[in-house]
Specification:
This protein has 118 residues and is α+β, with helices and mostly antiparallel strands. It has a domain at 34-115: Jelly Rolls, CATH 2.60.120. Helices cover 18% and strands 34% of the residues. It has 1 helix and 8 strands; from the N terminus they run αββββββββ. It has one helix at residues 2-22; strands at residues 34-38, 45-47, 55-61, 70-73, 80-81, 86-91, 98-102, 108-115. The strands form 2 sheets. It has a 4-stranded antiparallel β-sheet, with no helix packed on it. The chain has a 4-stranded antiparallel β-sheet with strand order 2-7-4-5, with no helix packed on it. It is globular.
C-alpha cells in the first residue's frame, strides 16, 4: 500500500509541475512597427534614442526582385542587412542613434520596431 501511495504522489507531483514548465512567454514590443524606405545611399533612416533608455530595435528589410539591402551603423557588430533578412540591435546611447540606408542604387524598404526591456 505504501508503494502505491508513493507512486501516486510522485505521478501527481509531476502532473502538477508539468504546466509550469510548458508555459510559453511572448515578449511584446513597446511600440508599433514603423515602415521605412531608403531610396538612395544618401537617404538615411535614423532611429533616435533621446532618453538614453535601453532599447531593443528589430529591423526587417523586405525582399523581392531588385530589393536593396542596407548598411547599418551603431547596431553592435551588425553593419549590413541583406534584402529579405532582419537584425536586432541593442542601444542605450542617445549620442549614437541607430541609422541605416540602402546599400546600392535600388531602394530598400522594410519595418523597424522598438521594445524597451523591463
Amino acid at each position: 500500500m505504501l508503494k502505491l501511495s508513493s507512486v501516486a504522489l510522485l505521478v501527481g507531483s509531476l502532473v502538477l509541475c508539468f504546466p509550469t514548465f510548458a508555459q510559453v512567454t511572448t515578449e511584446k514590443f513597446s511600440f508599433p512597427p514603423v515602415a521605412w524606405t531608403s531610396q538612395s545611399p544618401s537617404d538615411i533612416v535614423t532611429i533616435e534614442n533621446g532618453t538614453g533608455a535601453n532599447l531593443i530595435i528589430h529591423i526587417t528589410v523586405n525582399g523581392g526582385t531588385d530589393a536593396g539591402g542596407i548598411n547599418v551603423r551603431n547596431c553592435g557588430a551588425t553593419t549590413r542587412i541583406n534584402a529579405g533578412s532582419s537584425a536586432v540591435c541593442a542601444t542605450k546611447d542617445p549620442a549614437s542613434p541607430v541609422n541605416f540606408n540602402t546599400d546600392g542604387p535600388n531602394a530598400a524598404t522594410g519595418t523597424y520596431q522598438v521594445r524597451q526591456p523591463s
